[in-house]
Amino acid sequence: MTSKLLRVSFMLAALTLSVTFSLQSDQPKVLLVSFDGFRWDYLYRVPTPHFHYIMKYGVQVQQVTNIFITKTYPNHYTLVTGLFAENHGIVANDMYDPILNKSFSLDDMDIYDSEFWEEATPIWITNQRAGHTSGAAMWPGTDVKIHGSFPTHYMPYNDSVSFEDRVAKIIEWFTSKEPISLGLLYWEEPDDMGHQLGPDSPLMGPVISDIDHKLGYLIQMLKKAKLWNVLNLIITSDHGMTQCSQERIIELDQYLDREHYTLIDQSPVAAILPREGKFDEVYEALAQAHPNLTVYKKEEVPERWHYKHNSRIQPILAVADDGWHILRNKSDDFLLGNHGYDNALAEMHPIFLAHGPAFRKNFTKAAMNSTDLYPLLCHLLNITALPHNGSLSNVQDLLISPTPRASPNTQTPPLLHGSVKPRENEQDESYAYFIGVSLGSVIVIVFLIVLIKHLIRSQIPALPDFQAEISQPLLQA
Ligand SMILES: *[C@@H]1O[C@H](CO)[C@@H](O)[C@H](O)[C@H]1NC(C)=O
Ligand SMILES: *[C@@H]1O[C@H](CO)[C@@H](O)[C@H](O)[C@H]1NC(C)=O
Ligand SMILES: *[C@@H]1O[C@H](CO)[C@@H](O)[C@H](O)[C@H]1NC(C)=O
Ligand SMILES: *[C@@H]1O[C@H](CO)[C@@H](O)[C@H](O)[C@H]1NC(C)=O
Ligand SMILES: *[C@@H]1O[C@H](CO)[C@@H](O)[C@H](O)[C@H]1NC(C)=O
Ligand SMILES: *[C@@H]1O[C@H](CO)[C@@H](O)[C@H](O)[C@H]1NC(C)=O
Ligand SMILES: *[C@@H]1O[C@H](CO)[C@@H](O)[C@H](O)[C@H]1NC(C)=O
Ligand SMILES: *[C@@H]1O[C@H](CO)[C@@H](O)[C@H](O)[C@H]1NC(C)=O
Ligand SMILES: [Zn+2]
Q1: What does the pLDDT look like over 27-47, one tens digit per residue?
Q2: pTM recorded for the entire structure
Q3: Which of 108, 310, 374, 446 has the fewest CB atoms within 10 Å, i.e. is most exposed?
Q4: In 339-437, where do the E strands start and end?
């Protein structure tokens, strides 16, 4: 009887201590997932049980203000740098840099010129420079050499590779002998179908349901790999989508001679490079052209867009109102859904959900800026953030143990908030560590007491029966 009790208490002690020490030595794990074009309110369009499962056991932010222009490449680069487009340099999906005399085009997949990406340093590189490893499954820019590096593991971009195959890679990298600490996973939908069908189409219902199934698959695979409870998972997107119509088209040919300018980026933010000596003519013609087109000289672009101080931003910017489409003439491609508009419009806003050991449970936050994700990621990864335009303090309430800062009234500049204070991270874990060590120690002491008693009793023949009752509940525990 006593030896049974001894074995059980010894096993419990060993287990508690080993769990505690493995918890301590574990690298942080963060998986960032983007479902392109997943508008914030798609969550409520059809049942999305897997998204709601994350909300219930994690956190949600209802309105995320992304960056202008609300296009795919500019916003994905903001998520991993915390910078506005004018600061990270990916100012559009289609760009021309007059200093480099080079073009960048998502439409032609001509995006591999490193120089376009090197005005910033994305988080996977900073993570690697800090001695950790990263893995990326199709996240925009992760198959481009930036400042001489690729992610430790990455997949060359190929939109034919299934979601399941991308998830398999991510799981493989997180569970390998040298596990990654940062994973990045990208999926093209519901953006593609949103463009084709328009977000108001009832056919978007099944498209959103399919994304929910894909999220369910990811959760299932993370659970199977025993990653679900140890990994911090963030589900977000780059932008929303708005309904367009053949009735809301602005045709530039009606106002401008094609010989007088080059159209670098088309709709809904037309980036216009006038020919030599044609600036005034083009600007005047466009400024009065259409009530649903607002035309800015580059230096007059509103401050709140932070979209001015970069040579890749063209001299004239013509911005369409929500739901209006800019074409040269009706032979150009028309889309029933589009994005790129003013980032103050709710239609342009993405989703933001997170789950994991660092995050609170069943917590909803009203609003955040997408630039705040970067300092949050750096905090979770325990790496020092580079200068950026977000602030960790804006999103710290999403975390389980928001460390109280010096004083809530102290206004610290954003850069200071961004820099990682490892102490905060340690506090989370040291709590678990403390409980583990205490429990382990208590059990070891009990073990020693029982052992001593056993040694004493082995000299005395009679063993009291009640010890059987003690060992029973211990076995069931
Ligand atoms: C820019 O590059 C093009 C070829 O891509 C070339 O024809 C043109 O002369 C270059 N312009 C300048 C100013 O160097
Ligand atoms: C893209 O992925 C598909 C599906 O896995 C594969 O059949 C195809 O060969 C890949 N294309 C390239 C260029 O690697
Ligand atoms: C388009 O312009 C008209 C006239 O100024 C205005 O009434 C309408 O609200 C605008 N549409 C949008 C979507 O802003
Ligand atoms: C649009 O412009 C192109 C080039 O000038 C021309 O070939 C085409 O016929 C035009 N289409 C329409 C619908 O006007
Ligand atoms: C989640 O929080 C809401 C209120 O914020 C509460 O009504 C609900 O019961 C909570 N759900 C769970 C599962 O704790
Ligand atoms: C977003 O950033 C702006 C400018 O820094 C700031 O005024 C605003 O409070 C931020 N919004 C949130 C929800 O943190
Ligand atoms: C954004 O951050 C960059 C890098 O720190 C900085 O140069 C820039 O001035 C910031 N922009 C704003 C509007 O604060
Ligand atoms: C965070 O990083 C520092 C070194 O930069 C390290 O000393 C510390 O142990 C790390 N904390 C955790 C919780 O991993
Ligand atoms: Zn996108």
Answers
A1: 899 999 999 999 999 999 999
A2: 0.84
A3: 108
A4: 352-355, 363-369
